[in-house]
Write a structure and sequence with these properties.
The chain has about 525 residues and is α/β, with parallel strands linked by helices. The protein has three domains: about 1-235, Response regulator (Rossmann fold, 3-Layer(aba) Sandwich), CATH 3.40.50.2300; about 240-400, Transcription Regulator spoIIAA (2-Layer Sandwich), CATH 3.30.750; about 400-523, Transcription Regulator spoIIAA. About 30% of the residues lie in helices and about 15% in strands. It is built from 18 helices and 21 strands. Helix 1 packs across helix 6, helix 8 (about 205-215) runs antiparallel to helix 17 (about 490-495) and helix 16 runs parallel beside helix 18 (about 510-520).
């Protein structure tokens, strides 16, 4: 049973973003999973954080409070890349209803209302602040969120199996140690853990900060000292395709609440897989969802689409068929290794055959008019299959395909760990396949990434000019790099070094530098 009113719940979820009974909603999935395990679940969405009583309106849960700020860190939601509050942003004013550092505030409110109630942190904000981390908005290295929030346990990654196991353990009165995909604070460090540089060291020593960054992995048992205690990370659970089939097979209503209209554009989106093998330096997905692909079965995906055709709001359109990178579906490694680079590895099946087959079957489901692919694609990988590019552009996009080359400077692209210089090759192939149908590409670019000085920004601006001269209206979006916790690029930003090579990296840090680079692209 899931409810937003009443009392007598086993678990109460507090979500910074609106709650939707939908597989793309962080709280929505956890609520369904707990319900499926036979638990009574209460949901408090977007609590009035200045009012402690609002956190107590469903009473005390029998087992625990689960806190999440949702699918984006609250600081990213509340501030622009230039650290301006979004509600004051003249271009796109936005009021999130979430406090800064939402999980800290929520945990403190819960602690004052229910001093002994177990608190579980989850979602992306918890996941990527599980160790000592550079906080761009404070321009400082902060302790693990687990310590600052005084919560009992932190879940990193999507968190489904952890949410149920924590409930079972608390129900039995068992210790919470050892649950895969969680972090705990303990006075001692078990022998099988790898110790990474302590908070006190990474706070003052860039070299130690880089060593910690290089040690991060979801597959390791890691320990980080904070004064006389340790933050312990237990390796993540290894999800199997059947696990995803079960999760996405749950009876989500997909009804969109009137107070969250913006979610309507994803109402009929279908997730095909998890994980990403791209390894982009500015992205933290590998340390949240994992850097190995886990694909759902075709049968489970097609069954879901068939169910959607019976939904009262369904108009014949699947909003998206994808995942972190849409074209990585089916690229599950038969024998995963530790630390290899999948994109360059001979064991990886890059044929896109499974995906092409799925796309054809999906659009053939009775009642489906069109299946859109709106998730980003990894275009250098797509070059492995001209047939895939033909299928995609011919049936699954609305006249324009958005890709994210991010930059053109080889130096910056190397620091971003992107692309390997196949942008022009993809552009030429796409144009040759789509010119007659007047389909075209739109690009996302990023400025002010570490390594991107004025020269590199000028190089990018010149490339955009060339694209425009070539009759393209290329730019879909220009993003100013934002250092988010736990990424390689954030480590460069904070330390001025590339943690992998140890080499010094130029970092544009001032408002003026970043603004100037963005203006260059605006031309
Ligand atoms: S064997 Fe290759 S494809 Fe598999 S996990 Fe390792 S690097 Fe990736």
């Amino acid at each position: 049973m899931i409810a937003t009113q009443g009392t007598g719940f086993d678990v109460i979820l507090v979500s910074g973003e609106p709650y939707v009974d939908h597989p793309l909603s962080a709280a929505g999935v956890i609520a369904r999973i707990l319900d499926d395990a036979g638990l009574k679940v209460g949901v408090i969405e977007r609590p009035r954080w200045t009012d402690a009583a609002d956190f107590a309106r469903l009473g005390r849960p029998r087992l625990y409070f689960g806190l999440t700020s949702g699918s984006i860190d609250s600081m990213l939601v509340n501030y622009t890349p230039l650290k301006r509050r979004r509600e004051k942003d003249e271009h796109a004013a936005y009021r999130s209803g979430m406090p800064d550092r939402a999980l800290l505030v929520y945990a403190n409110r819960i602690r004052s209302a229910f001093p002994d109630a177990p608190i579980v942190l989850g979602g992306i904000e918890a996941s990527l602040r599980r160790f000592a981390h550079y906080d761009y908005w404070a321009n400082d290295v902060r302790r693990s969120l687990l310590l600052d929030s005084r919560a009992d346990i932190l879940v990193y990654g999507p968190g489904e199996s952890q949410a149920v196991e924590i409930a079972r353990r608390l129900d039995r009165g068992d210790d919470l140690a050892g649950i895969p995909g969680t972090c705990l604070v303990r006075r001692g460090m078990p022998g099988n853990f790898e110790e990474i540089p302590a908070y006190e060291a990474v706070k003052v020593d860039p070299e130690a900060f880089c060593r910690a960054q290089n040690a991060f992995s979801v597959r390791k048992a890691l320990a980080q000292r904070h004064a006389e205690r340790f933050v312990l990370q237990y390796p993540a659970p290894i999800a199997a395709p059947a696990d995803l089939d079960r999760i996405y097979g749950l009876p989500f209503s997909r009804m969109i609440p009137s107070h969250f209209p913006e979610f309507r554009m994803a109402q009929f989106s279908v997730v095909t897989h998890r994980g990403c093998i791209g390894g982009c330096s500015f992205c933290s997905l590998a340390l949240h969802q994992g850097d190995r692909i886990v694909s759902r079965s075709e049968g489970s995906i097609l069954d879901e689409i068939k169910r959607l055709t019976a939904h009262p709001d369904f108009k014949g359109f699947i909003d998206d068929l994808g995942g972190p990178s849409a074209n990585m579906y089916g690229m599950d490694c038969p024998a995963p290794c530790e630390g290899g680079n999948c994109l360059a590895c001979g064991s990886l099946d890059r044929s896109h055959e499974r995906l092409i087959g799925l796309m054809r079957q999906a659009r053939a489901v009775p009642g489906v008019k069109k299946v859109f692919v709106r998730s980003g694609i990894r275009y250098d990988l797509a070059l492995e299959s001209e047939e895939y590019i033909r299928e995609l552009s011919g049936h699954h996009v609305s006249g324009r395909l958005k890709i994210a080359p991010e930059h053109v400077s080889p130096k910056v692209l190397a620091l971003m760990n992107k692309d390997g210089g196949r942008f022009e090759e993809f552009r030429r192939l796409f144009r040759s396949l789509n010119q007659a149908e007047r389909r075209h590409l739109k690009y996302y670019f990023m400025v002010a990434h570490p390594g991107c000085g004025e020269d590199e920004a000028r190089e990018l601006a010149a490339a955009v000019k060339r694209l425009e001269r070539d009759g393209e209206k290329p730019v879909e979006g220009v993003q100013i790099f934002t250092p988010t916790p736990m990424t390689r690029s954030t480590c460069m930003y904070h330390t001025g070094r590339d943690p992998i090579t140890g080499e010094a990296v130029f970092v544009p840090r001032t408002y003026a530098e970043k603004k100037a680079q963005k203006r260059m692209l605006a031309g």
